[in-house]
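FAQ: What does the model actually see?

It sees only this:
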Amino acid sequence: MLTAMIAIFVLAYAAIALEHPLKVNKSASALLGAGLLWTIYAMGTGDAHRVGDELGESLMGTAQIVFFLIGAMTIVEVVDAHDGFEVITARIKTTQLAGLMWLVGFVTFFLSAILDNLTTTIVMISLMKKLLDRQSDRLFFAGIIVIAANAGGAWTPIGDVTTTMLWIGGQITALEIMKGVFVPSMVNLLVPLAITAYLLRGQPVVAPPKVDRHGGFVTTAFEKNTMFFLGLGILVLVPVFKTITHLPPFMGVLFGLGILWLVGDLIHKDKDEDTRQPLTLASALARIDMGSIVFFIGILLSVATLEHTHILSALATWLDQTVGRQDIIVLLIGLVSAVVDNVPLVAASMGMYSLEQYPPDSFLWEFMAYCAGTGGSILIIGSAAGVAAMGLEKIQFFWYVKKISGLALVGYLAGALVYIAQQHLFH
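And it is asked to produce this:
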């Protein structure tokens, strides 16, 4: 059974990677993979009750991410419908791609630490559509946004789901992870950023033409500012909501979406139906990319079977016995997280190593937060940020491998070396 499941996962993964040559949508491959894996698992186990409980548990985790994604994407669409991103784009005066690349890299890095890498990626890629006309430019920027968002998310307890898991599990504390991983994460961004900015030197920014989406009706400055700052404020306050209520982030996003919906309806209540319709939340919901969301469901449910069948924990134990060296094992876990979702990998590692053996804020946990958080950038489907970017900009798997994976790998290794050097010098 396990051999068949590994073979199906590899085939589904290959079909996702070869989406364009095969002309089969990646969402179909992900859903087929999930369906086959759960079917084989259910038939092979023979314990319908246990498999049903495990599927329910996996569905709960998947649904939380999906609801969060729907909420965040809708908020971004509403802000966009009101031309809210002009609040930022009107202030960006650089005419060179290299200068814009530095600006976008740093904004993404710090925004990701406050929001989280998934939301930041959605916001920044939506912003690039307002600033860049050529798709070739936008693809390069999307690649750097994925690297910057994952690097920024790794050094705060709320920036990346794996760091949050380690924080909630008691493996790391907020202040220590920020002190220990900030410099390696910054190096992880600076190396690819410097190389890309050098390659883009001298190239001008080609802005897209202004598109009238409101049939001649222009949103007022008050409407733009209200929806932009309210939308961004809701996304920024989601981690605060989670800390205060201990409810999952998707609840904060949905609550915020309700507030935004109410405010939007009140602002536009006196307009006629034709003018109001494109600005409503209902219209924004119709514009979000459901194909990407379905892909998310398929890939997360597929990976969940590898977790429940202990394939991942067996891999972790084998690494421990074969490699032995802690730093090399964690580096490899980071590299594997580019292929397999980092959440079950970190979950397996948390189950493998006890807090008695490795106390909070020890080398293992801090280095795990860095490697699992940033290793996912090496492949486009290695992180939630990458999957979101793939859907939003229609990035091809092999284009990313050719143009971005090398940059992400160099940044990953440079940051890892800095962390190891930092540990030897200061501990």
